[in-house]
Amino acid sequence: MTRNDWQDSRGNKDRSITRPGGSTMEQGSAPADRVETTNAFLVGDSMTGGYGQGPDILHDCTIAVDPGEIAVIVGPNGAGKSTGMKAVFGMLNLRKGSVRLDGEDITALSPQDRVVRGMGFVPQTSNIFTSMTVEENLEMGAFIRRDDFRQTMEQIYDLFPILRDKRRQPAGELSGGQRQQVAVGRALMTKPKVLMLDEPTAGVSPIVMDELFDRIIEVARTGIPILMVEQNARQALEIADRGYVLVQGRNAHTGTGEELLADPEVRRSFLGG
Ligand SMILES: Nc1ncnc2c1ncn2[C@@H]1O[C@H](COP(=O)(O)OP(=O)(O)OP(=O)(O)O)[C@@H](O)[C@H]1O
After folding, report:
1. Where do the segments described as Disordered lie (predicted)?
2. How remote is the CA of residue 255 from the centroid of ligand 1, in Å?
């Protein structure tokens, strides 16, 4: 798979970074650059708001990601991680702050319109159609496309070979990790400019988690920015170019994954020492 296979050409930055595992990606320069937010490709900037008429859950919360990067949101239970992701996707009414995609203010757009603009979102639950086959799920993912999507489907089968084997099976018969692959594949069918994943490894074994992370890295290497919420903070920060630790709806710590993993306060408070 080559860069931009999934997506339309959009002039991604050409940069380089070495991953913890030693593999090299075309990516960022100085660490400080990689957590720069204001001009990032996707930015939820100083977001304050909550659900409906309820109290604010997010307080001046900022989340961002650039092409080729994996940005990870971590933090304790109830910190507002999923809420932050939903706010970026347009599922909250923000009282303050804005969301920008590729320099354009999309704060007023509905989630549906954000999908049309290039956002792929994989919710934490109910993210596949269990009675439909794997292939039908992928076809459903292409609902906004009018062009021939077979090539994209082949790319998804190359990324997740097990889905090719199980293409005729109802998705509900698949294992948890395989279902997550269907959900990510379905989102990729729109050829998104950015992919957002809410706890993609929830409920899967450590081995399956590692496999899913490997696939997520592969997608990021094609240039698609990935913003994800993760419960498995340590493992997620290991693959993160940017990490956001949220506490009570606020940014508590921000840095590269490496920086956060090395931060004594983050280690003590959020990573079990
Ligand atoms: N649909 C909703 N309506 C109203 N309040 C909600 C809704 N979803 C979440 N909340 C509240 O928002 C706060 C943050 O929840 P959120 O799910 O964003 O946290 P989280 O950090 O993702 O937690 P977890 O790690 O447990 O999934 C919680 O107090 C929760 O009760």
Report:
1. 1-33
2. 23
* pTM of the predicted model as reported, rounded to 2 decimal places: 0.86
User: What is the residue-averaged pLDDT of the chain?
Assistant: 86
- Is residue 80 within 6 Å of ligand 1 at its C-beta? yes
Ligand 1 centre to CA of 5 (Å) is 35
How far, in Å, CA of 233 to CA of 243, rounded?
A: 10
Question: Model confidence over 134-182: pLDDT tens digits?
Answer: 999 999 988 887 888 899 999 999 999 999 999 999 999 999 999 999 9
Residue 49, ligand 1, Cβ within 6 A:
no
Ligand 1 contact, 58 CB (< 6 A): no
**Which CATH fold would you assign to the domain 24-118+196-268?**
Rossmann fold (3.40.50)
Hey, is 152 helix, strand or coil?
A: helix
CA of 84 to the centre of ligand 1 (A): 9
The tokens for 22 are: 């030693």
pLDDT digits (tens, 9 = 90+) for 176-223: 999 999 999 999 999 999 999 999 998 888 999 999 999 999 999 989
- pLDDT above 70 for 89: yes
Centre of ligand 1 from the C-alpha of residue 78, in Å: 5
User: Whole-angstrom distance between the N-terminal and C-terminal Cα of the chain?
Assistant: 39
Report residue 13's pLDDT band, with 50, 70 and 90 as the boundaries: very low
The rounded distance, in Å, linking the Cα atoms of 160 and 37 is 32
Atom of ligand 1 nearest to the CA of 249: 14
Structural domain spans, the chain:
24-118+196-268, 122-191
